[in-house]
Write a structure and sequence with these properties.
The protein is of the alpha/beta class and about 290 residues long. It folds into three domains: about 5-85, Winged helix-like DNA-binding domain superfamily/Winged helix DNA-binding domain (Arc Repressor Mutant, subunit A, Orthogonal Bundle), CATH 1.10.10.10; about 90-160 and about 265-290, D-Maltodextrin-Binding Protein, domain 2 (3-Layer(aba) Sandwich), CATH 3.40.190.10; about 165-260, Periplasmic binding protein-like II (D-Maltodextrin-Binding Protein, domain 2, 3-Layer(aba) Sandwich). The protein is about 45% helix and about 20% strand. It has helices at about 5-15, 20-25, 30-45, 60-85, 100-105, 105-115, 130-135, 195-205, 220-230, 240-245, 275-290, and strands at about 50, 55, 90-95, 120-125, 145, 155-165, 165-170, 190, 215-220, 235-240, 250-255, 260-270. Strand 8 (about 190), helix 8 and strand 9 form a beta-alpha-beta unit. Helix 1 packs across helix 2, helix 1 (about 5-15) crosses helix 4 and helix 2 crosses helix 3 (about 30-45). It is elongated, with a radius of gyration of 28 Å. The two termini are about 50 Å apart. It holds the Pfam family LysR_substrate.
């Protein structure tokens, strides 16, 4: 017997309808039936009378209902008391970031946060960094590790964590080590489909009067490293992506001194930045950076 089983039993004892309880408690009817059967087996008695038309509590069922109501009430009160005693944050915080950021920046952040707030569960979502702002705007996560852009929506709050330089990479087999060795009419370029790397790279090309010969547009910076390693072309990627790539040994970094780095940071909705869990995560990392 556990508290979840008692919660399901309590609801069914009130609704007297397996379908209604299953839907309200987010379980399947078959799961609910198994829980009730397990309770009956453990207690050695029948809790519900069931036929094709109705469900009714037995005398034993009424006794268990009285017990379970008090037990669940005591359990909820105990959780409240413990929370007040510990004065600790509780709940779940969802964070979105790229696979690279989950390896480069997130571990230290989470380690410190978990030490100070062990009662908070972290739900990590990874994906294309170009989606970081969209995920926050769509309320699919509480926070994201995102890249600051000049056109960032005004309803978002951004706290900088790090400056990330972009580097130009070429296949190692091409033996290119200097920017002057590149022939932009001959050497093709791998570009990201969306995101700040694409915008910054195109800005650099425009400033230098270069019309890039684009071989392919790909999703994610990690894919650029892979395609460059396969000798499909050259491309700009964040240095942190290259540093954590298993394909780093298959490419060569070509020095480019005048390409703008971008600011990596934590992003959330403006109207949620003062919520306890989000604010705690934000403030912790601001203090660590300072």
């Amino acid at each position: 017997m556990d508290f979840r089983s008692l919660q399901l039993f309590n609801h069914l004892a009130t609704s007297l309808h397996f379908g209604i309880t299953a839907e309200a408690m987010y379980v399947s009817p078959s799961t609910l039936s198994r829980v009730i059967q397990r309770l009956e087996d453990e207690l050695g008695c029948t809790l519900f009378k069931r036929d094709n038309r109705k469900v009714a509590l037995t005398h034993s069922g009424h006794k268990l209902l009285s017990f379970s109501k008090q037990a669940l009430k005591d359990w909820q009160q105990l959780k409240v008391d413990l929370k007040e005693d510990n004065d600790a944050l509780q709940g779940e915080l969802s964070v979105f970031c790229s696979v690279t950021a989950s390896q480069s920046h997130l571990p230290a952040m989470l380690r410190q946060f978990r030490q100070q707030h062990p009662g908070v569960d972290i739900r990590l979502i990874t994906g294309d960094p170009a989606l970081a702002i969209e995920k926050v705007k769509g309320k699919q996560c509480d926070l994201s590790i995102a890249i600051y852009t000049p056109d960032m929506p005004t309803d978002l709050h951004f706290t900088a964590l790090d400056n990330v330089p972009l580097v130009l990479i070429a296949p190692r087999e091409w033996r290119l080590t200097q920017l002057s060795q590149l022939d932009w009419t001959k050497h093709q370029v791998i570009m990201p489909e969306t995101g700040p790397t694409r915008r910054t790279a195109y800005h650099w090309f425009a400033e230098h009067g270069i019309r890039p010969n684009v071989y392919a547009y790909v999703g994610g910076n990690e894919a650029i490293v892979s395609m460059v390693a396969l000798e499909c072309g050259v491309g700009f990627v964040p240095k942190v992506v290259l540093d954590h790539s298993s394909m780093a040994n298959a490419v060569t970094q070509i020095p480019v001194e005048d390409i703008e780095p971008y600011s990596l940071g934590l992003c959330c909705l403006q109207d949620k930045q003062n919520e306890p869990l989000i604010n705690a995560f934000m403030q912790l990392n601001v203090q660590a950076r300072g």
